[in-house]
Amino acid sequence: MEPLETITDEVIASRIQNGESALFGVIIERYEQKLTRYGRKFLPRDEQIEDIVQDVFIKTYQYIKGFDTTRKFSSWIYRIAHNAFINEIKKSHRLPQLMPDFDILVSHTVYEDPAAEKREIADIRAQLEQSLDKISPNYKEILLLRYFEDMEYKDIAEILQIPLGTVSVRIQRAKQALKDAYLKLHP
């Protein structure tokens, strides 16, 4: 029997559809941290995010019979999560707090002066946060999906339910908006 780590999400989903419901725990293990990290881009409180992620898993389990196993499972579950987080934002009448994990952006090379490196990283982080706060939520989200969640264009198109060509255009516009926001704040 093949180890679970080597089995694709789509195969696991198919097996769940065929009655092996105990395999749903594998889906939870694979996606809980990813969806929680994704939720932090929308909402400020971890407890709220954890509740929504649990709801996402409940919806995923409820609707897994309708999942087309010829498609990518990650796009399908991220779409469920996207809708859940957007609905929570709409319910609370707040704008999303899309904040990337800046440790991914900042190089961790060794400098002779560690204090100078820490100041530089803090400055870069603050500048990026300010710039990201100035662009629209649509642009923030698409940059986060592409560069922080490392999603392919076709997966982003499926999650956001937009045409594939629109993903490319929106990413280019988002990068330009981020650059413009940065230059306005830091001429």
Question: How would you sum up this structure, described in words?
Answer:
The chain has 187 residues and is mostly helical. It has helices spanning 9-17, 24-39, 46-63, 73-92, 102-105, 114-133, 137-148, 153-160, 164-185. The chain has two domains: 1-97, Orthogonal Bundle (Rna Polymerase Sigma Factor, Chain: A), CATH 1.10.1740; 100-187, Winged helix-like DNA-binding domain superfamily/Winged helix DNA-binding domain (Arc Repressor Mutant, subunit A, Orthogonal Bundle), CATH 1.10.10.10. It has nine helices and no strands.
Protein structure class: mainly alpha
Cα(first) to Cα(last) distance is 60 Å
Output the CATH class name of the largest domain: Mainly Alpha
The biggest sheet, with number of strands, parallel, antiparallel or mixed sense and barrel status, is:
none
Q: How many helical elements? A: 9
Order of helices and strands: HHHHHHHHH
Looking at the structure, what is the overall shape?
Answer: elongated
Residue share in helix: 55-70%
Portion in strands: under 5%
Q: Return the domain count.
A: 2
Enumerate the spans where pLDDT stays under 50 for 5 or more consecutive residues.
101-111
CATH topology of the largest domain: Rna Polymerase Sigma Factor, Chain: A
What is the level-2 CATH architecture name of the largest domain? Orthogonal Bundle
Going by CATH, what is the homologous superfamily of the largest domain? RNA polymerase sigma factor, region 2, helix turn helix motif
Mean pLDDT: 83
Number of strands: 0
Please compute the radius of gyration using only Cα atoms: 19 Å
